[in-house]
Amino acid sequence: MKIDREKAVQISYFLLRVVSGLLFLQAGGLKLFSWFGGMPPEFPFKLFSEIGLAGVLEFFGGSMILLGLFTRPVAFILSGEMAVAYFQGHFPRGFWPIVNHGEPAVLFCFIFLFMSAYGGGEWSLEDWIKKQKGKPLGPREGKNPPVEASGQEIRTTRIFDAPRDLVWKAFTDPEHVTKWYGPDGFTMTLRQMDVRVGGAWNFIFHGPDGKDYQNDIVYVEVMKPERLVMDHVSEPFHRTTVTFEEWGGKTLLHFLMTFKTLEEQERVSRQYGAVEGLAQNLGRLAKYLEAIRN
Which parts of the chain fold into alpha helices (H)? Predict the structure, then answer.
């Protein structure tokens, strides 16, 4: 059985984040609200005490880790809390964690340190907010809207009369992508296509004017068959985000190009014809999908 490694990593990290957040939420609830039996009598609740501050960090920090909201800064703070807890409460009892009973503090310290670098990941609230913010409105009455250039972005939405898995393959399979990708009159020489996070996509466009255009792309996110995020690391520099949605047996595709500045977007639109080129590109995809389905 073939295992999708990217999906396995996403699921594993999701479970790690949720379980860690839930455990910390419980620890904070025990200190603040006497949940799960509460603290012993010698530890009365005082908000501005050391145990009270720990309870606040653990309850609210654990809740945010569980939801995946502000994950990086919250996880960094909780990692620091666990480091303080270890050296203040456990290390004086002995050097080794197995002797001073500080194993949970050490483990959580490094788990949260990792989360502070990784972020919320898939299925986190912050990832959902990011996707909603960058998602164009869907077509109305089944009509495809025009390509729009506004601010730092060039975006559009299209409905393709093909299942989502097939549209995903058209974007990620070398056998498909070389047959449609590019504006009208362009052909492609594919050098490399490694569809994974950190993988490279290198190709040369051969324009109808006889000029060659080198394209170097790095995959930032690959969530099969829902989302692709790619950085165009050769001129013109930009980030492309493509999302694929089920749409009653068809595919609703959102295509977003993000540039560093408004001026850069306007330059690329003017110099390269990016707006017209994107419309032609997706038009070629529609014709290609129709051809391979018939």
Answer: 5-33, 50-67, 71-85, 97-100, 103-118, 125-133, 164-172, 174-177, 262-272, 274-293
CB 255 within 8 A of CB 157: yes
Q: Which amino acid is at 50?
A: E
pTM given for the model? 0.56
Question: What DSSP line would sit under 74-87, residue for residue?
Answer: HHHHHHHHHHHHII
> Please, which residues bridge with residue 258 across strands?
153, 239
CB contact set of 133 (below 8 Å; sequence gap of 6+) = none
Cβ proximity of 217 and 231 under 8 Å: yes
Tell the CATH topology of 134-293: Alpha-D-Glucose-1,6-Bisphosphate; Chain A, domain 4 (3.30.530)
Buried b (16+ CB within 10 A) or exposed e, 187-219: ebeeeebebeeeeebbbebeeeeeeeeebebbb
The domain spans of the chain are 5-127, 134-293
pLDDT digits (tens, 9 = 90+) for 144-175: 778 999 999 999 999 999 999 999 999 999 99
Instruction: Return d(Cα 269, Cα 117) in angstroms, integer.
Output: 35
Cβ distance 109 to 83 under 8 Å? yes
